[in-house]
Request: fold
Amino acid sequence: MGRKPKLSKDIKVKACEDYKTGRGSFHSIAKSIGVAYETFRLWYLTYEIHGESAFDYSNKNNSYTSEFKNHIVDEYSSGKYSLPELSARYKISSRVIRKWNEMSYNGIELKAYDPKGDIYTMKSRKTTFEERLEIVKWVIANDMNYKEAANKFANRYANIYKWTKAYMSNGADGLKDKKRGPKQQNNVNKDSLSEIDKLKLELERERDLRKRREFELEVLKKKRSS
Reply:
C-alpha cells in the first residue's frame, strides 16, 4: 500500500504556486511547511511537469515492467536528465532509480514488479524450523525489511511478518511447529518435579527471557540508528 502523505495536496500546490509567483524561495517555503529543501525542490519539479496531478494520492503500489526499468536506467546513464529531474518526470523516488541503476551496473536482471504478485499472493510453502529462524534473523539484521525478505526467501510477506512477531514474543520456541492433537497445558506442575528438574526449568525460562530481551534491545538499537 502506498504511504499516505503527511501534507495535503492543497498545501503542496499552494507552496509550489508561492514559489512560482516569487512569494518565497525554496528554502523559506520548505521551512514554512516543515519539509526539507530537497523535498520541496523535487515537489516543484514534479509540479512543473504534471501540474496538480503530481500530488494525487493512490493507496496502491505501482507496477513496473522490466522494459520500463531499463528505459529509466538508460536515461539516467545517458545524462539526459539529472536524478531529481528523472524522478520528477516519472514520479519515482530517487532512491528507487539509484537502486535500479546499481543493479543494472552489477549485471543483475531488472525484473518486472507487480505488487499484487509474488510476495503478497504466492502460495505458502512448507518450511523447517531452521529455515524460519534463518529468515527471521535476516529480517532483524536488515532493519525489519519484510518485503525484501519475502523476495529473497520466496515466501509470503504475511508468513514472514507472523514468524518475526512470534520470535519477538516467544523467542525461537515461537517458530517451532505446533504438534497436532490434544492441547497440552503450558504450565508444568512443579510439585511433581525433582529439585534438579525445577532448577533446570527455571534456568531454561531465564535463558529464554534473556534471549528475548537481547532481541528487543537489538531491534531498538537498529531503530535508533536508522
